[in-house]
């Protein structure tokens, strides 16, 4: 039986990845922090749970607690503090995440895992593009984006030092049932269901969204078939202007919400097509997104309406 270790296992992406790997007959060890609380998606019964703080990844106690998962096929590192909200702008917290990512590589090496897969973000591309301008005026939340890219570069370097096969998955925008955050899709759907006004930017910038279970499946494929050293963009393969996604949600909810495009300024960079290129992921792993945006919104709406 294949074995996998997943950090950040109680989070939105982590809990779906645990479920995906368990369904694929992996023996899964979920690494959780003491204050993490219940997983977003309940763990399958056969999951082994190990409590470990991010600051303890380099401790002998961590390797000892994970001894049953020595020589795991994949070590997935998803744990990251301050991934949403104002804490994205806390540079000390974000710098700590970079160190924790390198420590996770060290732990994976100590355990003789076959490969390491880290979780990045398309916001890495956004901040690099925006900050390249001489007159750039970056918002504090770019500390998160910059830290993600720094984690990629430093962890990849640390993995090379340890001869650890290293892979990176750059997530576009995940959405779906059970999302506990105030991400764009969640916020918009809740407003539309309540027929509340939606004040938006012009929404002309290119976006891509991927349903959460498809994202988990993509991570599984990267762990199994990805080429070491690669950073893979993970998206639906169908990027479009943000307004197109808003209009799809408007149609599926049947909302009476007044949608005011241009009521807010657009603070995001308009990424070029290269940032959304999923062909490398398709070439190396065969992954094709099977749940389109309308289907994913339908699944998300079903859960939101049950909760309400």
What does this structure look like?
There is one protein chain. The chain has 308 residues and is of the alpha/beta class. The protein has one domain (3-176, 209-236, 272-290): Rossmann fold (3-Layer(aba) Sandwich), CATH 3.40.50.720. The protein has 10 helices and 13 strands. The protein has helices spanning 12-23, 60-65, 91-110, 123-131, 142-161, 184-193, 212-225, 242-253, 279-285, 293-307; strands spanning 3-7, 27-32, 48-51, 74-77, 116-121, 166-171, 174-175, 198-199, 206-207, 210-211, 231-234, 240-241, 259-260. The strands form 4 sheets. The chain has a 7-stranded parallel beta sheet, sandwiched between helices. Strand 4, helix 3 and strand 5 form a beta-alpha-beta unit. The longest helix has 20 residues, at 91-110.
């Amino acid at each position: 039986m294949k074995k996998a270790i997943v950090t950040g296992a109680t989070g939105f992406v982590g809990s779906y990845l645990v479920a995906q790997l368990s369904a694929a007959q992996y023996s899964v060890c979920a690494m959780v922090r003491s204050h993490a609380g219940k997983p977003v998606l309940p763990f399958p019964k056969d999951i082994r749970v190990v409590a470990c703080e991010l600051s303890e990844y380099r401790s002998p106690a961590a390797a000892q607690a994970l001894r049953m998962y020595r020589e795991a096929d994949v070590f997935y590192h998803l744990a990251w503090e301050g991934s949403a909200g104002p804490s994205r702008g806390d540079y000390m917290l974000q710098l700590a995440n970079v160190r924790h990512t390198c420590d996770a590589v060290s732990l994976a090496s100590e355990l003789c895992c076959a490969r390491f897969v880290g979780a990045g973000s398309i916001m890495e591309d956004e901040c690099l593009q925006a900050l390249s301008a001489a007159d750039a005026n970056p918002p504090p939340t770019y500390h998160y984006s910059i830290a993600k890219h720094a984690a990629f570069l430093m962890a990849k370097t640390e993995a090379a030092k340890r001869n650890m096969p290293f892979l990176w998955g750059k997530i576009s925008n995940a959405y779906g049932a059970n999302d506990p955050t105030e991400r764009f899709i969640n916020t918009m759907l809740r407003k539309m269901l309540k027929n509340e006004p939606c004040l938006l930017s012009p929404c002309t910038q290119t976006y891509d969204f991927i349903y959460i279970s498809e994202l988990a499946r993509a991570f599984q494929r990267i762990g199994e078939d990805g080429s070491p050293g690669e950073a893979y963009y993970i998206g639906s393969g169908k990027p479009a202007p943000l307004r197109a996604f808003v209009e799809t949600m408007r149609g599926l909810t049947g909302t009476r919400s007044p949608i005011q495009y241009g009521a807010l300024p657009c603070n995001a960079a308009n990424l070029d097509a290269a940032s959304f290129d999923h062909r490398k992921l398709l070439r190396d792993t065969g992954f094709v997104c099977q749940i389109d945006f309308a289907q994913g919104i339908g699944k998300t709406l079903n859960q939101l309406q049950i909760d309400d």
